[in-house]
Amino acid sequence: MPKNHKLALLLARFLLGGLAIILFLTLFLVSDWQHWSLALTLGLTVVLFVLVNVGYIWLFWLARRQQLLHEEKDDE
Asked: Which of 5, 7, 40, 41 has a beta carbon 3.0–4.6 Å from 31's, enabling a disulfide?
């Protein structure tokens, strides 16, 4: 796998993690300030959790796909 591709995926993981932390903190702070119901806060937390995990799965799939394509080129 090219080095710049690995670096891009690593940077994307860090950015996704940082964005997730910011979004979770913002969600909890806004829900506290606006006095949202517990059900709404938990529901949005679950949705955000699922979206962040889908993002990490997508990044893993991209890395794995690149690795498999690189291995196929080496086999030929």
From this structure: 41
69: left (phi over 0), alpha (psi -120 to 50) or beta: alpha
* CA proximity to 27, closest of 11, 43, 15, 12: 43
Domain containing residue 47: 3-75
For residue 74, give both structure tokens.
């080496």
Summarize pLDDT for 11-23 with one digit per residue, the tens: 999 999 999 999 9
pTM metric for this prediction: 0.80
Helices and strands per DSSP (H, E), number in the chain: 2, 0
How many structural domains comprise the chain?
Answer: 1
Percent of the chain as helix, strand, coil, to the nearest 5: 90, 0, 10
- What span, in angstroms and rounded, lies between the C-alpha atoms of 25 and 60? 25
